[in-house]
UniProtKB/TrEMBL annotation:
Kinase recorded as keyword: no
Record protein name field: Peroxisomal biogenesis factor 11
Localization per Swiss-Prot or TrEMBL: Peroxisome membrane
Assigned keywords, A-Z: Membrane, Peroxisome, Peroxisome biogenesis
Length: 245
C-alpha cells in the first residue's frame, strides 16, 4: 500500500517519507559520518578542518548508536516469526548466508546497545571493549551479505539464461506467451540489478568492517571513501519506489 501511494507524490514528499523512517535517517547520518571521516583523511594537515570533521563525525556516530537501540529485537522477532530457520529446502546455501547475516547483525546491535548503556547508565569501564566486539560481528554480517548477494546473482543469471531461451521459443512457436516471458525477464533483470547493488554495498562495507573492528583503524581516507560508497548503495536499497501496476 505504501508503494502505491508513492506514485502520486513528489520528490520532496518522498524525502519526508524516507526520513520519517529509522532506516532512512540512519542511512543519512551514516553517509555524513563517513563523509566527515573522508574529509578528515584528505585534510590531515589542516587541524581546524580535521577537528571540526572529527567532532561532527562523533556526533553523528552517537546519534546512530541511539537509533540502533533495540534493533536486535526486530531481528529476533523476524527469526522467531518463521516456522523454521529456513535451512532446509532447495536454497539452503542462501538461507544459511542470510542466517549468518542476521546473526551477525543481531550480536552487533545487542553488544552495541549494551556498550551504549554501559557508557550512559551503567558506567562500565569495559563499554568500549563490548562495542569493539560488536563491530567484529558487523564484519561477519557484511561478509555473509556479500556472499549471499554473489549467490543470488549466480542463481538469477542461471534463471535469465533459461528464460531467455524460452523467450526465443515463444517468439517462434507461440507468440501469446511472449508477453509473460518478457515480464519474467523484467523481474529477473531487476533481481540481478539488486544483487549487483548488494555486492557493491557489502564489498565496500567489508573494508569498513575490517577497519572499525580493529583497535587501530585503517586510514580515514580509505575507511571514509568505502563508507560513503556503501552508504549510497544502502540509500538506493531503501529508497521508496513507484509500484508496478
Amino acid at each position: 500500500m505504501a508503494e502505491t501511494k508513492l506514485m502520486t507524490i513528489d520528490s520532496s514528499e518522498t524525502w519526508k517519507i524516507l526520513l520519517s523512517q529509522t532506516e532512512g535517517r540512519d542511512k543519512l547520518y551514516r553517509t555524513l559520518q563517513y563523509a566527515c571521516k573522508l574529509v578528515r583523511g584528505l585534510d590531515a594537515g589542516s587541524s581546524s578542518v580535521s577537528n571540526k570533521s572529527l567532532a561532527l563525525e562523533q556526533v553523528l556516530s552517537n546519534a546512530r548508536q541511539v537509533l540502533r537501540l533495540a534493533k536486535w529485537v526486530n531481528i529476533w522477532s523476524k527469526r522467531m516469526g518463521q516456522a523454521s530457520f529456513g535451512l532446509k529446502g532447495q536454497d539452503s546455501v542462501g538461507a544459511t548466508l542470510q542466517l549468518l547475516n542476521d546473526l551477525g547483525n543481531f550480536l552487533y546491535f545487542a553488544l552495541d546497545n549494551y556498550a551504549l548503556l554501559g557508557k550512559t547508565i551503567l558506567d562500565r569501564k569495559d563499554a568500549n571493549t563490548y562495542q569493539l566486539r560488536g563491530k567484529r560481528f558487523f564484519l561477519l554480517a557484511v561478509i555473509a551479505g556479500f556472499l549471499d548477494s554473489l549467490w543470488k546473482l549466480r542463481k538469477v543469471r542461471k534463471q535469465l539464461s533459461l528464460v531467455s531461451a524460452r523467450e526465443t521459443s515463444a517468439t517462434v512457436d507461440n507468440k501469446a506467451d511472449t508477453g509473460n516471458v518478457s515480464h519474467e525477464l523484467q523481474v529477473l533483470r531487476k533481481q540481478q540489478q539488486d544483487a549487483i547493488v548488494g555486492i557493491v554495498r557489502y564489498g565496500f562495507d567489508i573494508v569498513v568492517g575490517i577497519s572499525i573492528s580493529r583497535k587501530e583503524q585503517l586510514s580515514p581516507t580509505l575507511t571514509g571513501f568505502c563508507g560513503v560508497i556503501s552508504s549510497l548503495m544502502a540509500w538506493y536499497q531503501v529508497w521508496p519506489r513507484k509500484a508496478n501496476v
